[in-house]
Amino acid sequence: MVKLRSPALQRSQQVFKFVAQFTLVVSLVTQWCVLWPVALCSQPFPLSISWASSDWESLVFWLSYDIGRLEIACRTHSHYYCLDLYRTQNPYLNDTENLSQPAYDIQAVRAWFGILIQDQWHRINMVDFENPGYCCVSQTMKYLVHGLHNKRWDPEQYMAKLIDYDDENKPLNFIMAIKSPLSSCENIIVKVGFGPGNLRRSHGDSVIPGAPYTIAGRQLQPIGIPHIDSVHFDFFDPGQELTFHWFKHNIMCKDNAWICEKEVTPKKEKKPKNEGSGSGSSGNKKSQRKKQTKAEKQNRVKQS
User: Has residue 68 been placed in a domain?
Assistant: First the structure.
């Protein structure tokens, strides 16, 4: 643990407050803008967002499409998906003045997380959407907001959340969707998240209520993922089919096979007991000893 030193206290508190205010702005902007083919928030489309339950956290992914500035940025790195962040709730959303002292020195944890993500970002598809080929300004800011500020997590704790793919029972708890520009009867999923808490939906006003959600594949070219078929999910209960297990094996592992190649140590099988030479054999020996002892007693009686 890197302890906060008193000479850096004032500077760290200022940075910490900036992070809190930045988080508030991002939260408000997210509520009123939606991705469109030209650019993020290039047009003021009203956005409908359902609010989160108190336990809500989410491992969030972008789909790699040829639509929208961020999806296109993702496609420069992967034709399947990109990891956005592990998103957490801001406990100071309505109270940025009453912030407690940060648990770590800001500059120290910034450098610490930078070292960790430098070795992993390319492997886990966590790109900087402003500069897809570079690391690690954007990724580090996401840690400072969603890890350090919101949860008081150190860099290793936040990194563990980013690479935890073993629990395939994580439920779907976030969907961002837009109306398909190529079809009048389906909604394209551009972003998904998995984790605890209720399902949050981020919809532009063009989304068609009741029309299926779609992960766009080769049937929706040129925007879809070219290596998979388009898959449709029920609008009212998408989490029934769109599970983390499905997403992991049909999207993530297609791009990063190592995620599904973890070896499972086989259990040692118990050797079956050999009835002829195992416990049965020892039983036969005991029986033979009893017979021999009985015969010896009979011989002694006869002799007396």
Answer: yes
pLDDT at 48: 62
Domain membership of residue 276 (yes or no) is: no
Say if 303 falls within a structural domain: no
H helix or E strand, kind and range, residue 83: strand 81-87
How many domains does the chain contain in total? 1
Average pLDDT, integer, range 9-37: 46
Question: Which residues span the domain enclosing 56?
Answer: 1-96+167-263
pLDDT on residue 294: 57
CB-based burial label for 284 (10 Å; 0-12, 13-18, 19+): exposed
- Please indicate, yes or no, if residue 245 is contained in any of the structural domains: yes
**Separation CA 207–CA 214 (nearest Å):** 12
Nearest Cα neighbor of 243 from 255, 231, 225 is 231
| Nearest one of 112, 109, 133, 130 to 121, comparing CA atoms | 133
pTM for the whole structure: 0.72
Averaged confidence pLDDT in the chain? 79
